[in-house]
Design brief:
The complex is a heterodimer of chains A (395) and B (321). Helices cover 56% and strands 18% of the residues of chain A. With 395 residues, chain A is of the alpha+beta class. Chain A folds into two domains: 196 residues, no CATH class; 182 residues, no CATH class. In chain A, the strands form three sheets. A six-stranded mixed beta sheet of chain A has the order 5-6-10-7-9-8. In chain A, strands 1, 2, 4, 12 and 13 form a five-stranded antiparallel beta sheet that branches. In chain A, helix 2 packs antiparallel against helix 10, helix 2 packs across helix 12 and helix 10 runs parallel beside helix 15. The two termini of chain A are 36 Å apart. Chain B is mainly alpha-helical. Chain B has two domains: 162 residues; 148 residues. Chain B is flat and about 70 Å long. The chains are: A alpha+beta (395), B mainly alpha (321).
Chain lengths: 395, 321
């Protein structure tokens, strides 16, 4: 029960590791690499989750979509006043948006209509509307685009304007008024903003229709009641809450990193076997060492303790190195290769910078999946070594 | 089934425990049956070596279970964000029928493994190894608790359903008629508090007298009493809300994770107290003063922390809740 820290034993363990130079270094390197891989994946998932949670904070509380036969349909603007009459609804804002497929580059742009006279659904849209004159954009069709969109347009020689093809097959020429760069580039990279009239024209939408309606609700506690009321008014509608989005985002990324980890376990088990095997096969040098130690009076417990010190030194130093390497890899190098697991493979992949977040929970997961597992792998071999008979090994 | 990294980590370590535990269990059976410190038989020699392995495995499991238990609570708290209705670990734990049982198993197992290690130390100190057979027989018993806990763990994470609506701790621990623990709310505060501080006073007295049997009983009594006092009285002052009785919420960030300190001092204090008593009872020659001391310090710290909340509340507001 009493754990006394023995510095002499620690020094002896360090020396023993040093004496077995290559063997110890190899184990250390392997453990570090495996822990590093695992840590990188978890840190990336965590950072993206954090970035998304920032995005979600800015979202309106409720989004109401119109469904027909289970498919999303445009919603009539007549509903607006009825929705506003519900107590607790601060604002009801119709949104006009959609995806525009650009054949040449094979990408989808997210096209979002802006109504200058209405409130904007997000804060950063508000700042953009004040920065650009969207009223003037109606007369001379113009748009503000995200960085990724600008890059794609440039590659296809659209420097100042872009020709959208409307549903009727006509061209809608829209000039490029500016580039928009939000704090969270995760969501703004593939965005195009232009007045709602032009968006309706491109997508062939009726002027009295919107894609969906978002509700701002001042009091969080009233959300549940408002949902019931909306549901009673429009039984065919689908109502998406901010909370539901947050939960589904979190489960998606938990799931993604979980799947990775589950597959990774195979790797971990293989590693365990290798360590077990290497630790079991003793060289004649090591056997001689145990024999001498026993001859000078060491007990089985002392040798076990020394082996435990050795394993802890390797495990903890590998853990620390792996964490530092993973932090460097993810935040300084921005995790090349690995982050593609999470961001998908669309051409307009958002080029965002991962925000720096490290929390104890993530570190604990990495710890629990590296240090104890290594210790477990060497537990039985250490015991086997420690219980070798002195007369046998010295013979 | 929740396949988040935290859950995987817990389940992987559970699997390891099960593997090593089973191994230790099989070896323990042999040791418990045939161990004889006076024998010079070859088998006895092999058994002594095996005893060391089993002891090492049990130490490994125990020292990992300690941080893993805290991690389990922490994970349950995080999962509560995902489950509709749950606001803290209480909701998550109660979302399955045997949730509380799992929790009880986890705490009991920590105590059991801890006592085992105490007995092990005591055994090694004596050159005749008087408790070896006893401790391995005990492990054979404890192993079933371990297995039960691991299976509960597995079923718990398997049964967790994100889409299911669970009860929040506000309703689980309330005086309303739907609450299953309603009857404890009938206990008046003055009686509860006098029992709580009375037991603590007894604890202090017996600590100075080093009365092993009394100390054991007081510590055993102190655990449920303290949890009851936390739910009924002290909790409301931590939350500064007379209606909120949850013993889990104060583990969260909003209350500066004070719950971890509270429970570590409570369980640590009683653990050392019970160990000290058992050791003194088993070995009359020594008094194991250091364990008595740890028990006293931790318990005193626990009482000081929980008492500080109502006192500070009264100091600031001039009224009791």
């Amino acid at each position: 029960m009493h754990i006394k820290f023995n510095t002499y034993l620690l020094a002896y363990a360090l020396n023993a590791l040093y004496r077995r130079g290559f063997k110890s270094f190899f184990t250390f390197l392997m453990l570090s690499f495996i822990t590093f891989l695992m840590a990188s994946i978890l840190i990336i998932a965590h950072a993206i989750k954090y970035e998304l949670s920032l995005t979600i904070d800015a979202l309106p509380e409720l989004t109401i979509q119109n469904l027909q036969a289970g498919r999303h349909q445009n919603i009539s603007l007549e509903h607006l006043d009825t929705l506003l009459d519900i107590h607790g609804v601060q604002r009801a804002i119709p949104r006009v948006w959609g995806f525009y497929y650009f054949d040449n580059a094979g990408v989808n742009f997210s096209v979002m209509g802006i109504d200058t006279f209405d409130h904007q659904t997000k804060e950063h849209l508000e700042t953009m509307v004040t920065a650009f004159d969207f009223e003037a954009f109606v007369a001379t069709p113009s748009m503000v685009v995200g960085k990724g969109v600008q890059r794609i347009l440039n590659e296809n020689y659209y420097k100042d304007y872009f020709n959208f093809i409307t549903t009727e097959g006509n061209f809608q020429k829209v000039s490029l008024a500016g580039v928009f760069d939000a704090r969270t580039s995760l969501e703004s990279n593939d965005m195009i903003f232009m007045p709602q009239e032009i968006v309706r024209n491109i997508f062939g939408m009726h002027p009295q229709e919107a894609t969906d309606i978002v509700l701002r609700i001042a009091n969080k506690d009233e959300i549940a009641t408002i949902i019931t009321k909306v549901k009673a008014l429009y039984p065919s509608s689908r109502i998406i809450t901010k909370e539901a989005m947050r939960v589904s985002y979190q489960s998606i990324f938990d799931y993604k990193s979980g799947i990775f980890l589950a597959l990774f376990l195979v790797c971990l088990v293989t590693f365990l076997m290798i360590v077990y095997d290497r630790a079991s096969g003793l060289s004649s040098e090591e056997k001689k060492e145990v024999g001498i130690l026993k001859a000078v009076g060491w007990q089985i417990n002392d040798i076990l303790k020394e082996k435990f010190y050795e394993a802890s030194i390797i495990a903890f130093s590998a853990f620390l190195c792996a964490i530092i390497a993973a932090l460097f890899f993810v935040y300084t190098l921005q995790a090349p290769l690995l982050r593609d697991i999470f961001t998908g493979y669309s051409v307009l992949k958002p080029t965002f910078v991962l925000p720096f977040v490290v929390d104890i929970q993530m570190l604990s997961v990495i710890f629990f999946l590296s240090v104890p597992i290594y210790m477990a792998a060497v537990l039985i071999p250490s015991w086997k070594t420690a219980t070798l008979d002195a007369d046998e090994v010295m013979r | 089934m929740m396949l988040s990294p935290d859950v995987i980590a817990i389940l992987v370590l559970d699997a390891l425990f099960l593997l090593f535990g089973t191994f230790a269990f099989v070896l323990s059976l042999g040791i418990a049956r045939h161990f004889d410190a006076h024998s010079f038989h070859e088998r006895q020699y092999a058994l002594e070596k095996k005893a060391l392995l089993v002891a090492t495995i049990i130490q490994y499991i125990f020292y990992l279970k300690l941080p893993l238990f805290l991690f389990f609570i922490f994970t349950s708290d995080t999962i509560s964000n995902l489950i509709t209705g749950a606001m803290c670990a209480a909701g998550v734990v109660n979302s399955v029928d045997f949730g509380l049982l799992l929790f009880a198993f986890k705490i009991i197992n920590l105590y059991l493994f801890g006592f085992w290690l105490v007995l092990h130390t005591l055994d090694l100190k004596n050159e005749t190894l008087p408790y070896t057979r006893a401790k391995f027989s005990l492990f054979v018993l404890f192993f079933f608790f371990l297995v039960a806990e691991i299976f509960c763990d597995f079923y718990f994470f398997n049964a967790l359903n994100i889409d299911k609506i669970v009860s929040c701790c506000g309703t689980l621990f309330s005086a309303t008629s739907t609450s299953s623990i309603r009857f404890i709310f009938e206990l008046p505060h003055p009686i509860l508090l006098s029992m709580f501080y009375g037991t603590f006073a007894l604890h202090v007295m017996l600590f100075f007298r080093k009365d092993a049997l009394g100390f054991l009983l007081v510590n055993l009594f102190f655990i449920p009493l303290s949890i009851l006092a936390l739910i009924l009285f002290f909790g409301t002052y931590i939350y500064e809300l007379p209606t909120h009785h949850c013993p889990f919420c104060f583990l969260q960030k909003e209350y500066h994770y004070v719950g971890y300190l509270i429970y570590i001092t409570l369980f640590g204090g009683t653990f050392f107290g019970i160990s000290a008593s058992i050791m003194s009872l088993a070995d009359q020659r020594k008094t194991y003063a250091s364990f008595y001391r740890y028990s006293f310090y931790l318990t005193a710290l626990f009482v000081a922390i929980v008492s500080a909340y109502p006192l500070l509340y009264f100091y600031r507001n001039g009224v009791w809740l």
